[in-house]
Amino acid sequence: MSCNHVVNPELWGKKREVSGTMQWLPLAQHLEDTGNVIGQLWDHWLSDGQRKFIESSLNKHVDAKKLSQFLGCIHDIGKATPVFQFRKSSSNSKDLDIALKNKLATVGFTNIDDFIDKPEGWSSSHHTITGQFIISNAGVPEGICAIVGAHHGKPLDNDSVCKSNKSEYPDNYYQSETESENSKLWQKLQNDILDWALERNDFSNVDDLPEISEPAQVLLCGLVIMADWIASNEYYFPLIPIEKDLIENQEERYRKGWEKWLQHGSKDVWESLNCYSDVSQIYKHRFGFLPNNIQSALHNVISHCEKPGIFILESAMGSGKTEASLVAAEQLANLTGRSGVFFGLPTQATSNGMFRRVENWLKSVNSDFQGEIGLRLVHGKAELNADYAHLPHGMQNMNDGCENASSNNEANNNGVILNDWFTGRKTAMLDDFVVGTVDQFLLASLKQKHLMLRHLGLSKKVVIIDEVHAYDAYMNKYLEESLIWMAAYGVPVVLLSATLPAKRRKELIKSYLLRGLGFKWSECDKSNVDFETNGYPLITYSDKNCVKQKFIENDASDNKSVSVRKITDDNLHESLVSELKYLLTNGGIAGIIVNTVKRAQEIYNACVNEFSDEEVIVIHSQFIATDRVRKELQICNMIGKNAHRPARAIIIGTQVLEQSLDIDFDVLFTDLAPIDLLLQRAGRLHRHTIERPNSLKEPILYVLGTSERYEFDKGSESIYSKYLLMRTQYYLPDVINMPQDISRLVQIVYGDNPLELQEDLTDAYVAAKREYDSDKNNNESNAETYRIENPKTEIG
């Protein structure tokens, strides 16, 4: 558009010399590019829920898209300063520096060389600092100033940082301390940029600009960073020869640049279409089966929500929580305007296992949507996952006018693709659908550079977190803070667990409702909830300021009674091998889950002396990444759902075998662990409906490492605490009726009721409790040190 105000074309924004060719980009052009890109991101990348949230977070009725474009047009105003314009090229190109210095001389600046010879404070006056000061000094609202100051990923502590920097290094802003012609000219150029940005985006003056709530500032800052990175990519928006001062066809430049980005970024914004009339229809289409009671209940609960928030689904292992959460994500995305999903899991192995299931679900989803959907696996060894490696890249999926688009889509994984632009560590969470380790979610509450990009990506999604019971006190503090921020953005969250202690259930709900949405506990309707209930399976959830619960009737076919047999560590290897030989006489698959790598290795060595190498497999964290991934895949192929099971096998592993892997043992040995984790391990016992050897038709759980004197393996105590191990052994029954006993056992073990022990054992128990409480408090305190603060949701 044509503006009365213009940005001086002689100011540079980018420069470089390669092989004797000098190139640059006027600052005016980079600001124009960034403003254009933000406009496209607003219309074609943000979710509807994000746009509505930002619009509701302003204290004035303004066009929020225009506000975002204003931010793009103003973000690098700090480059219109001598400290930036007179800096030397990173390529040490004297000719390029001279050429640009001559351009500045034509503007009217004098004594340029005198300034260049005074390097004091150059590194202290970064253009984010100078930019925040310039617009703050001009009366721009504080929230907008903070975004400009933070657009390189690190917010300034407060506005006084800018003011003190200006006081200490005035030459960096205006070339001289006194009112000189040079300083007046710098101020004019800076004012011209501000006036141009205002006019271009239909603001009369700075008084038209709104204040912005802190959560919306975070998202808008993330949007500015994303747009800046796209606009700074020379493949999308190339530099021009030093001889040229302007680009004549602006529309063609930004159209071509955007189209190039689409080849690497998100081509389509997913919308959940909600095109199924009933729950049976969607489950049949997505997964090929009808929903069970748990899946139907969650679907029904969400269908009746006015303003859905957090959902905690507690049900037994293997009860279909994954499918329930994915259908819930479709519902919640439709209700809240989200355009993606983050699925977080405890480990890399569980993330790998979930990736294929999410990919298959997405293929079905896209059969309705008929677009391109980006999917990403995010953890340290993601590149070793074969399913992830085989995803087609976005560039390969461009149709280029091909008539047979449907067959092309089918050949390219039903439109489920890998968007290359989001490959970086800081951009991964911006992709549409992300499966990864839970730390990717917990990092949303850790003080770190470019945190706003993670928030921007998460706020666009429905968040699902699996195995919520598996996190320690340190991780739980970050989980709570991340939930608080998701609530502030209006992001719906689904938490999955076999079961949770009543206190933990309440803490999670309160984090979301109180510190996230800003309600007072007294304002929340809790008339339909009992946090202390042993009811199971259970959905605890929020709808506006109401906390509700739904008890679910068990499918009778899911019930099973597990016999529990306790084994001490006395002559463990000998007695274990002897029992295995007896149990597996007629074949079968035995699982052995232990708490430490050392115990896994020792038991493996004992077993291979009596069984063949082919029959014994061990997996733990000390394998190199490629071997570990190979073993995980081997195990899933051996004893996963619908697998071709070997006649006989012994699979030994550490905690990787207890979490989310859809595997099935005929008989299971496990080290003593806290009751919730012990039950989780038991969930791998007779998990699938299959034919078993006659001697293994009844599920038996052997618990290793128990002790009449409550003296446990030191490695186990260091991981789980003696206190929880003592309470678990004390309340561990001879038979566990699953799922009926799950919640009752967890509540009693994690409760405060005293144990009736001999006097000397009582002393040991009290000491263990004291140590447990101390460790928990220390972990929570340590988490506070690096955790971000709660969001300030008020505006202005």
UniProtKB/TrEMBL annotation:
<feature type="domain" description="HD Cas3-type">
    <location>
        <begin position="20"/>
        <end position="230"/>
    </location>
</feature>
<feature type="compositionally biased region" description="Basic and acidic residues">
    <location>
        <begin position="786"/>
        <end position="796"/>
    </location>
</feature>
<dbReference type="InterPro" id="IPR054712">
    <property type="entry name" value="Cas3-like_dom"/>
</dbReference>
<keyword id="KW-0255">Endonuclease</keyword>
<dbReference type="InterPro" id="IPR014001">
    <property type="entry name" value="Helicase_ATP-bd"/>
</dbReference>
<dbReference type="GO" id="GO:0005524">
    <property type="term" value="F:ATP binding"/>
</dbReference>
<keyword id="KW-0051">Antiviral defense</keyword>
<dbReference type="InterPro" id="IPR006483">
    <property type="entry name" value="CRISPR-assoc_Cas3_HD"/>
</dbReference>
<dbReference type="Pfam" id="PF18019">
    <property type="entry name" value="Cas3_HD"/>
</dbReference>
<dbReference type="GO" id="GO:0051607">
    <property type="term" value="P:defense response to virus"/>
</dbReference>
<keyword id="KW-0378">Hydrolase</keyword>
<keyword id="KW-0547">Nucleotide-binding</keyword>
<keyword id="KW-0347">Helicase</keyword>
<dbReference type="GO" id="GO:0016787">
    <property type="term" value="F:hydrolase activity"/>
</dbReference>
<keyword id="KW-0540">Nuclease</keyword>
<dbReference type="InterPro" id="IPR006474">
    <property type="entry name" value="Helicase_Cas3_CRISPR-ass_core"/>
</dbReference>
<dbReference type="InterPro" id="IPR027417">
    <property type="entry name" value="P-loop_NTPase"/>
</dbReference>
<keyword id="KW-0479">Metal-binding</keyword>
<dbReference type="InterPro" id="IPR038257">
    <property type="entry name" value="CRISPR-assoc_Cas3_HD_sf"/>
</dbReference>
<comment type="similarity">
    <text>In the N-terminal section; belongs to the CRISPR-associated nuclease Cas3-HD family.</text>
</comment>
<dbReference type="GO" id="GO:0046872">
    <property type="term" value="F:metal ion binding"/>
</dbReference>
<keyword id="KW-0067">ATP-binding</keyword>
<protein>
    <submittedName>
        <fullName>CRISPR-associated helicase/endonuclease Cas3</fullName>
    </submittedName>
</protein>
<dbReference type="InterPro" id="IPR050547">
    <property type="entry name" value="DEAD_box_RNA_helicases"/>
</dbReference>
<comment type="similarity">
    <text>In the central section; belongs to the CRISPR-associated helicase Cas3 family.</text>
</comment>
<feature type="domain" description="Helicase ATP-binding">
    <location>
        <begin position="302"/>
        <end position="518"/>
    </location>
</feature>
<feature type="region of interest" description="Disordered">
    <location>
        <begin position="773"/>
        <end position="796"/>
    </location>
</feature>
<dbReference type="GO" id="GO:0003724">
    <property type="term" value="F:RNA helicase activity"/>
</dbReference>
<dbReference type="GO" id="GO:0003723">
    <property type="term" value="F:RNA binding"/>
</dbReference>
<dbReference type="GO" id="GO:0004519">
    <property type="term" value="F:endonuclease activity"/>
</dbReference>
<dbReference type="Pfam" id="PF22590">
    <property type="entry name" value="Cas3-like_C_2"/>
</dbReference>
